[in-house]
Amino acid sequence: MTPAVSILVPVYNVSKYIERCAHSLFQQTFEDIEYVFVNDCTPDDSIEKLQKVIEQYPNRKKRIKIIHHEKNRGLAAARITAIDNSTGKYIQHIDSDDYIEIDMIASIYQKAQETMADMVVSDSIMEFPARQYISKEHISEDWNINFTNILKHEKISANSWNKLIIRDLYKNNGCLIENRLCYYEDWLPMIKLFFYAKKVAKIDRAFYHYTHENPNAITAQKKQQHFTDILLFYDKLEEFLSEKNIIKQYEHILEKIKLQSKSCLIFDTNTPSLRYEYRNMFIEEEKKLWHTLKPVEKVMFFCSKRKYLLWVTQIIRKLLLLKAKLFH
To answer: What is the CATH number of domain 5-218?
Structure first.
């Protein structure tokens, strides 16, 4: 019998967090759940710890799969493997260093049934070492507003883990994750999913605990892969928008988000040589939108193009990080 919901969980280097995550999944008040864990060749004891937790939930064991990759293939590939090995009507992604409220699946599934939605979006609890806050999602009845917001990554997050999505939306429309992406891996399929979704519903509760404390997370390490992934992301995004004959309609948004991505990476990387190597990334957009940049962005972009001024970019970055630490 086809399960109502498949919960998909990639596992890599999460020994500190996997037990908390697994307990929150197996304690769900909703029964009709299939669990698919993908071991992406984790080098630690995450799988052993997971198996010990599984033994504590004998009623769940028959609906649990652990798929093992023969070599480490990255987060995107792990998500694809999980989707391919799942059978539920709806798909729910969960990151293994996070955890969820025990009534999350029951609540969002009920919302999906009541509204006949292809996707149900909920709020999230963002947990940092010194503080936590609720990240609100803003869903409209207007398709264009939702698509514009997900494209801009404003008002609607690109995260997959706070969205229950009907399987057919993935499978019938080529909305799978780009296998080569590990950074921005959720954003591209989410743009496609919002494009194809006929009905998106919102439930006004925060169920998902996003814990910003794992130093192994891809988002915690801004390295060369982030730059190459962003270039690939925009290539694929432009390809999709062109196929749908809407690239001209959203061209101004595309230019803006490209520059936002460049600004974030130029700042976030702690390697001056990377700033210099990718100094001309989206250079045409930079020239066109130069007048819209903040003064600090202009200085960072200017200095990153000159090897003898790269030390300035490091000083600015350290000062801004210090300011953020002192005033937040």
So the answer is: 3.90.550.10
Question: Contact 168/119 with Cβ under 8 angstroms?
Answer: no
Q: What is the pLDDT of residues 15-50, one digit of tens each?
A: 999 999 999 999 999 999 999 999 999 999 999 999
CA nearest 8: which of 59, 81, 72? 81
- Strand 90-93 and strand 163-166: the pairing is antiparallel
Q: Which residues contact 190 (CB under 8 A, 6 or more apart)?
A: 150, 158, 159, 160, 163
pLDDT one-digit tens code per residue, 176-185: 777 777 788 8
pLDDT score, position 174: 79
| C-alpha distances out from residue 310 to 158, 222, 229, 264, Å | 32, 17, 23, 16
Structural tokens at position 290: 């130069």
- From 162, 179, 178, select the one nearest 120 (Cα to Cα): 162
b/e burial code for range 214-234 (CB count within 10 A of at least 16 → b): beebbeeebeeebbebbebbb
Q: How big, in percent rounded to 5, are the helix, strand and coil portions of the chain? A: 45, 15, 35
List phi, psi (to 5°) of 107. -70, -45
Q: Is pTM beyond 0.85 here?
A: yes
Residues 6 or more apart whose CB falls under 8 angstroms from that of 181 comprise 76, 188, 229, 232, 233
Size (the chain), residues? 328
Q: What are the boundaries of each domain within the chain? A: 5-218, 222-327
281-284: Cβ within 8 A, 24+ apart: 281/227, 281/230, 281/231, 282/258
Query: CB–CB of 22/52 below 8 Å?
Result: no
Distance CA 288, CA 95 (A): 38
